[in-house]
Amino acid sequence: MATIRDVARLANVSVATVSNVLNSADRVSPELAGRVRAAMEKLSYTPHAGARSLRKRASGLIGLVVGDITNPFFSDLFEAVEDAAAASGYLVLLCNSNERSEREEAHLRMLRTQRIDGLILAPTGAVSMNRASLLAQLEVPVVLIDRAMEGLGYDAVVLDNRRAGFEATQHLIACGHRRIGLVNGPEVLRTAAERLAGYREALLAAGLPFDPGLVRDAGFREQPAEQAMAELLALPQPPSAVFATNNLMTIGVMKTLADRGLACPRDISVIGIDDLPWAEAVSPQLSAVAQPVRAMGEAALDLLLRRLGGTLQGPGTTTVMAPQLLIRRSCGAPAPGRPAHVD
């Protein structure tokens, strides 16, 4: 296999001249550059990508850290970012924090050694003493996705989570429900806090009281959502409808209902956030508030590339995406004999 020294010898130039040609240095004369390229072609010389990245401080790699790769939202997000990155000549290194700050921090340290050109991060909701420092040490543009962080000045792409929570709850109220359970994520996550705020605002707009006893934190996970749904059903006055604020928790809710022999909307209505790929293939078809996942991933990469290219400078910007309410068959009027309202 030919080396850079072989190219220099054949072209009768120095190794430094070959290196300058590889890095498009304009101080190399056209005549010398032509000789170097002719020698490279004759020897079938291919520059070592790792060596070039060290010289140019560019690896062609973009890091993507997600919260839970088992969540279809994040797997769809990875596909969107990877497709858009490939179209721009970049590869994506995917890391899964599993919603644990220590794993997130380990990934950030690793990505620094990989000399990534930029990072797209869905931060965990856990308190991290080291995250801000580790992000700064990367010395690359950072774009936050799905979850913003205040005070760090990074670009962010997020859903209008308050509106998503409002529209889902409003739809259940329009169906006649007055006692609506909420299976939510931890309020330390801004997404969960805003979806809860939207739920409360819809209740307030309809003149309904907010009952904290109808709210359960299931950590955005499937199995805790099963337990949360069981707890709601065990209440002296159980809800006639349930709003689950992500797709994994919607699955958990539906599993518990199936285990109890309950059907929706016959016995209880269910709506979720995130449109599951099979939502229209099950019976009943699941109502949901969909996130524009592909558009979010593409927007995040576009912000990152604009930062890398220098066309976007200054303070970070926040792009807020609109949700879409998808009305299907899992929501209906309260079941006969089940209280629709609080006395």
Give a short overview.
Keywords: DNA-binding, Repressor, Transcription, Transcription regulation. The chain folds into three domains: 4-56, 434 Repressor (Amino-terminal Domain), CATH 1.10.260.40; 61-159 and 293-323, Rossmann fold; 161-291, Rossmann fold (3-Layer(aba) Sandwich), CATH 3.40.50.
Describe this structure in words.
There is one protein chain. By secondary structure, this protein is an alpha/beta fold. The protein folds into three domains: 4-56, Orthogonal Bundle (434 Repressor (Amino-terminal Domain)), CATH 1.10.260; 61-159 and 293-323, Rossmann fold; 161-291, Rossmann fold, CATH 3.40.50.2300. Helices cover 43% and strands 15% of the residues. The protein has twelve helices and twelve strands. The strands form two sheets. The protein has a six-stranded parallel beta sheet with strand order 2-1-3-4-5-11, with helices on both faces. Helix 7 (131-138) links the parallel strand 3 (118-121) and strand 4 (142-145). Helix 1 crosses helix 3 and helix 10 crosses helix 11. The chain starts with a helix and ends in a 17-residue tail after the last strand.
